[in-house]
Design goal:
Radius of gyration of chain A: 23 Å
Shape of chain A: elongated
Distance between the termini of chain A: 54 Å
Strand order of the largest sheet of chain A: 1-2-3-5-4
Oligomer: homohexamer
Helix content of chain A: 25-40%
Order of helices and strands of chain A: EEEHEEHHHHHHEEHHHH
Strand content of chain A: 15-25%
């Protein structure tokens, strides 16, 4: 059976296909009638669904994180699409491929991972290399790392999102080691790779993305330091000062206490890591906001709370832009 | 006669050489005796001077911005060097080369400028290219631009400092057009080159670096927009929307209103320009703070007010760092 | 046909009259039935409307900014009035007078403009007078200026609102030139007249009030400086220092960077202009909030987000207030 | 004997005249020798003094707040004048007139007070008039009020300063009752007169100006409410709601909690009082800063901490400004 | 008839019982049909109600603050319970006991009051004791004090809430007089008892809890000072410095100006009172948030706006916790 | 030989005794003559010293942290005492007892430690007890803990300061487990004891108190978590959720991110620990500020930067305060 993906839906069409249930809720209309509100997801995104008839009966036939098959019409509600579902049933396991239902990086995970490994290869400092290898030569960690999201929402929210963000940050840092003189390239690249490592334990994909208990109580910065400490314990003769630098770069990578780093970056590599990380996060937020936009008539997106501004859908100026396109 | 430069002075030596007078002041000791306090500069930096004897007589023999020849002893005062001057006289014009007395970028100005021109060459959008050429093919502007400092203090404070910072920002932006997809490379590179252009009128080097009146009243962001507007007026058929983008990128390049930008960056190229600019400024602040430090015993610099922290003089970890260097 | 105005509506009545469509939206009730939500306006204000029956058919018969004739009942919803519309059709052009549908200053525009002109007359400084005349003797500008609103919401939101606010600010500044000594009255009054001039391009009334693209990207402060610069270019021998003062007073009139002025007022006239402007804005916000209030039982208005407080509907104490009106 | 005033001193002159001692300190030079540091004042300002010889002997011959006769030379120290005192002795009471030594409003106190009384006369509301009279018909209060300073430093720092600021605020408020419609003029004018009344107990002039203990512990806002409450207790049938308005206007006149008002102004008269008060304070700060400036070469004053900016010594543009005065 | 309390309701049950009407509103469904929305309360809490049929008729049969008898079904709506009411009528006065409908401290009011009196008994300073007695030996005040709530929402929101919070704060302060040396125990305990006394006039229970007019215009801090001042006026020879200390401790008990105290605590007893008060408030907020929570599946409460965080529903670790409860 | 302690010195006396050198600096007077500036300390405090004669020769005879014997006169300089030193020499080791030179808690360290141990004894949860014992039954740790200061300046700055602050916080927490219901007393008391444990590595006394490198780079919160983690690794079957609670309470004990805690306290015990800690710190700051004060004439201390206020030297009101002590 053909899967129809969320990013392909258009207003007015009828779809009969499978989605994963992110959440379901049984509510009552003002007229006293029960209805069901769902958030459905697949690997291309998520969409709201409503069941107006027989909601209570349908409600008990599946759980959160199940995959269901729906027969629905796509409608426009408050500038976004939603599914008005006539019928639904749990999908058979042979109808579906679970990987279809996880939001997933648009880049190839194995290719990204190979590129990341080549950066690890390039490290010459034996202690830092040993530290990287202690993570990236352990199968269980690699599996978790590849699957991890970089955030619950806001940026790089998908399977492979952590890898994608880590690789992008590493590339920028690698470039900057060529741009600025006298940086400790091994240290900067190592920490670009490790700076967000705590996110594999801060977040869980089940398959919706949520904070774990330790994620909420401690945060990925503290967890990352703990993970690194555990590995360093087992690397013979790891220099204690180098250990402090490593821990400090994780600790300070959010830049200032208001953003979660109790210490500001106190040396050049720490400052650069913070700024490369932040740049990559902001670019992703803006790119996603523009991609989410569905209102072609306005040159402006909706207000983006994460960055406290609206965004301009900038027209492109190729060399052949003709002057009469200008106003007045 | 041999010039002895400020960055070569060491405690205890006697020097007989020329310096430019940044400022002079006639004061009275607590014992009621007049003495003179000076700030002297040459191309390698600046140093305080004191004249304890015959101060009043010496005081009237020269003006600010004159070059004088001093006979002095180098002493240590409050962790920094100062000159105790026995005798001084105005220098003869044939004794000196004015270029010896201006703090100057450590990079070759002509080479930097050539590289900047190659970026201009690469622009394909005819309007943006025309805009860049209207500045960089005008001899008077080019002369001012090459001579300008990027700031009064804080960062890139020297002749050529504006060029150095502009080139560095442009290089980073150029790299990012290869790193991130679908950026308007012409727009981003053009604005990297033009973002701080208002500084040629915000600051003056005379030869000490100060804000001009319009620099204080308007700031380089507004002046930069005015300069760009003036040029665009004379470029036929410059698209009015492109003009808004150009103006917005200057306006928003400080990132938020508290830092002087009444508008935040509202599209991706504006955000990236802001972050590339900010990164380059912060790297220069940290690099200068470490270079200024003269206390080899402490692993920490003095408190750096501009970035609100002390900095760690990070030890270098080469591959041959031996573990016994570690504490405990 | 008789127009019934929005500020005359009362709960329960039935109206058959014309309104301008500020916006329309076709939505779906929870029960899956389409309905239409409208914002309707006339010169006395705006009101929400709902069409519950045949919404889809009605939806296609008119566009935003059209005038429509409705047959509706006035109901109370969430402490405000709304129209439940049974029928509607586009109005014939001979049924309506467009001026009935624009929110409009409650003061006579021509009278206000005459008074403003008399302030211009009083200016003696020839450069400032030339600058004012270059605006106010240009017919196209005068038309736009008279029609402009001072804001999109918050304060002086109406045709003539900019003129009303400008005149009020000018009057206060004129008074203060008599109250405080040694002010440059010509400069202060000129800039009171010009301080918000950028709003004619920041906002558009079409006929609903919205930010233009340059309004969002640059803001009225920058646009105002550009407009003034353009005029000054054409005034022979306009003193360059006076130009800086003029530009600075526009730039600084919001008082501090957090409020959109990258420079604080740096001389007395600039400070006074900022405070006169701000006073007039705040008085209008409070006056409007009190006028909007429809809950006679509470001595307090709703929370006013723009000024972050609730307001007290102060009882009036005339000389004949009798003491028994006091509590307890 | 002729009194020479502080604002008449010029560098280099010798003076033999009387000053009041604001403070005295016996210190030791680095060479181990005792010297005395003094702050001297008269009605025109204050000046630093130094005694280099026989300091210990002179030190014991007078106390703070005594008037002494000095024989001194005027010198320039750190851009300000100071007195190097050779000899000094306590002044005889018949040599001096105490009023010569108090910093004093430049306006005539009795004239200002008469004008204030005319505003009181104009009040028609009998309760408010009774409240005003209960203060201003009490001889002791009037004496203190006329003598009070409006602040310890920052603004209106002088005998009569409170009266001067009160009158100026009242005039502006009176103007605004004509400018804006439907204000309760009696209430606004009454509270303009009473808003800072707590300052007569917050500050003491002895003859230097200092906070009292209750001034520090409670502040003039709370003290003002207490003073008003005490009077209202004795006005028969004073309406309790009017009392709340009166108290609220004192409480809220600093505008927001960060500036000492736990409540923001909650009705129009309170908002206007706050802004008229604030305007008058800021104008006085700027005027004083410009008057204090002694550096004719720079167009900028020193940094003014109270308003967080430097100020521009704006050139005056009379109608005859010739264009060649412009730069370039 | 049996009263069924709000904290006993469970989803799905049918209840026929009495509730007090906190507020009622007649609204229109999207389908144009009127319905009524109510907030009902009893001594155990509050709950939302909806009347879908015959809403308009029912609406006119009772007023806010009446007690009504409803026949309703308990449903779950948005994670909280609500009543869908079929029928309702005003309750007969002999059917109800008003005390059933006021939210009430879970501690015995008389017992708490007795304990508070024992603290008053312990005071030795005759002036402070007289001050306390002037309040707590006045029957009318005691009645109001026992009935008062400590806040409108946020913390200790109930009849007896002020007493409960006052007693808790007093106990903590009493403990701290034994923990820290050289505190003035009489002063600290007296002010712990009096610090929030202004709340008896800031809030009214009618029977829902609201700010009074003077509560909004002045706040309980100012009212508290006024109440204390009135009493002190009548205590012969009350030392004026002690009066300042008393007033200061009320004024500063919120700790800093942003939180409503124009003065920070300026001596040790004031600082300790502030912190004991704040601790007790925060503990109550957290305790209530945990008690309100109805979602047993999540270890986290909803976001708590008053303290800007989510809370962890910490598992209990008794000595017999077995290690296998740990994850992985 | 008799040691004369710093807190016993009085102006004018001559002392010949031993002090520890906290720092020494060779400077030049304005007259060009070298002199030495020293900070000397003993267990009762610290004092500045000056050597005016033969400074250079004396300078080379000792190092920082040596004990020297001085012959000096006590003088008053800028409201504080300083030593003018005529002669000095390094002390012989048999002349001195090192414990005389360390600032030391005024409480008996062993007694305090015994009390702390009794709290440890009282813990019933076996995992928490094992955790405490793993620290407090290790001799090396106990030695460091007893010797540690709680801060570099600000509060509890002395040998034993950490123990003193820890014990005080523990006592308060223990009291609060009796005051509030349903707290996990074992958890709260354990964490009161451990909350600042990272300070043994954040600070070093050598013998002056300074931040270590890891103290600056990581801070005591992170170090504390690392120390606890290391111990927990070796406690069999330590429940992983309990470990999270322990780590969270260290992490959150500064209350909010601006104060160094990336997470706010998320359950009741964490909130109470934060507030007990903060209370104890603030009480110590105020107590020290009052003790440091040497100006009996003013009722106010100097401005205390750490708590941003001046403090009132409150008069004591015993029952026998007579009313005539009141002002006026």
């Amino acid at each position: 059976m053909n899967k129809r993906y969320i990013n392909e839906l258009s207003e007015g069409e009828r779809v009969v296909t499978n989605f994963l249930v992110q959440s379901k809720q049984l509510l009552t209309t003002k007229a006293g009638k029960p209805y069901m509100s769902l958030i459905l997801q697949d690997k291309t995104g998520s969409v709201a669904g409503r069941v107006w008839d027989n909601a209570a009966e349908f409600y008990d036939t599946f759980k959160n994180n199940d995959v269901i098959k729906v027969d629905a019409t796509v409608e426009l509600y408050n500038k976004e699409l939603q599914l008005v579902i006539r019928r639904l049933r749990p999908s058979e396991s042979d109808e579906i491929d679970l990987s279809d239902f996880l939001p997933c990086s648009s880049h190839d995970i194995e290719e990204m991972f190979l590129e990341l490994c080549s950066y690890i290869e390039s490290i010459e400092n034996p202690y830092l290399k040993a530290l990287l290898n202690s993570f990236f030569q352990e199968e269980g960690f690699v599996r978790e790392f590849k699957a991890a999201s970089a955030a619950r929402n806001i940026h790089h929210v998908c399977v492979g999102g952590l890898l994608e963000h880590t690789l992008s940050t590493t590339r920028i840092c690698e470039y900057l080691t060529t741009h600025y003189e006298s940086l400790d390239a091994d240290l900067l690249i190592t920490m670009a790779i490790l700076h967000d490592i705590g996110k594999v334990r801060e977040l869980e994909i089940s398959p919706s993305i949520n904070y774990t208990e330790e994620g909420n109580l401690l945060g990925h910065i503290i967890i990352g330091i703990q993970m690194v400490d555990e590995k360093i314990e087992n690397i013979p003769e790891f220099p204690s000062k180098l250990r402090m630098l490593v821990e400090h770069m994780i600790l300070s990578h959010h830049g200032q206490s208001e953003w979660g780093s109790p210490r500001p970056p106190m040396f050049l590599e720490a400052e650069i890591l913070h700024r490369a990380d932040d740049l990559d996060v902001k670019v992703d937020i803006i790119t996603r906001a523009l991609a989410r936009d569905r209102d072609p008539e306005s040159p402006w997106t909706a207000y983006q709370k994460a960055i406290e501004r609206i965004l301009y859908k900038k027209p492109t100026y190729e060399t052949d832009v003709s002057p009469e396109e200008s106003p007045d």
